[in-house]
Amino acid sequence: MKIGVIAANGKAGKLITEEAINRGLDVTAIVRNENKTVATQSIIKDIFDLTTEDLTQFDVVVDAFGEIREDKLHLHQDSIQHLSDILSNTNTRLIIIGGAGSLYVDDQLENQLFDTPDFPEVFKPLAKSQGKALVDLRKRDDVRWTFISPAAEFIADGERTGEYILAGEVFTLNDKGESKISYADYAIALVDEATEGNHIQERISVLSK
């Protein structure tokens, strides 16, 4: 299996790249500047300069792009639209690292986590931007996309336990009443989905056991 990881130099991207390589997959880091990952192959391009020809060589493209500057949050929607456009009607899967804020808190899928009273105000712009990107993505029936939301507490330097819970659209807690996952365990879940999963045109979520 050939996998391309966009924004592979980022914290999540590096761990996903490493996880995939450790499983013997053929991994290419897609980065704007120097490749700083363990991948021996790279494409040095800005995400918005990527073409259909660049990406259709891969079975799976992982989008680990993220933006936290408030005046640049629109890049979540813009970048996913660009990737969707260039992968339209191809066999290449697009797996996107999403956010937890757009998860629903009811089985009717009417109320989202970022609209609940306890959701931190400081994270609302980012969460809503990622939520808008997902709304746009759901309109694409021409792209083999999967959107993977992490738990509410997404821990960059957290422990790699090797275990996780796979959930769906509804915000889920583990048996300890927690919603958390390390980047390392998220990487395991994402590579599992890339190699074994079939959640095409679906949003799924993952959390620690």
From TrEMBL:
Coiled-coil features, chain-numbered ranges: none
Protein name (record): NAD(P)-dependent oxidoreductase
Domain NAD(P)-binding stretches: 8-192
SUPFAM superfamilies cross-referenced by the UniProt entry: NAD(P)-binding Rossmann-fold domains
Listed InterPro entries: NAD(P)-bd_dom (IPR016040), NAD(P)-bd_dom_sf (IPR036291), Polyketide_Oxido-like (IPR051606)
Pfam family, one: NAD_binding_10
Organism: Mammaliicoccus sciuri
